[in-house]
Amino acid sequence: QVQLVETGGGLVQAGGSLRLSCAASGRTFSSYAMGCMGWFRQAPGKEREFVAALNSKGDTTNYAEYVKGRFTISRDNAKNTVYLQMNSLKPEDTAVYYCAAAKNGGPYASIWSSSAVYDYWGQGTQVTVSS
Fold it and tell me: Is the pLDDT of residue 28 over 80?
């Protein structure tokens, strides 16, 4: 069992930055050899969409096209925490951001964008970007 808690959301002006954190308990990220951590978001009236993912080894990432060059996913295994650094934020980035953990993400980064891969989800943290 893994419990995920997202923090770091808030209100920021367009062009600003936020860093989201996802702290895990129950089992460390590094204990899953084929594991994967992902970030998703859901805006009002829209479906949940993929943002970014990182495998347990920390050597492979997958980013949604709309965040490439602006967002960075990283992990600190010593703290059992995954981060999402968000720069150059836009009003359209406004959404509830969710952290997710997959026990087995498989060998192909392309599938990490699918929510079906993930076994555990956090409660979400609100990010609001004002114009």
Answer: no
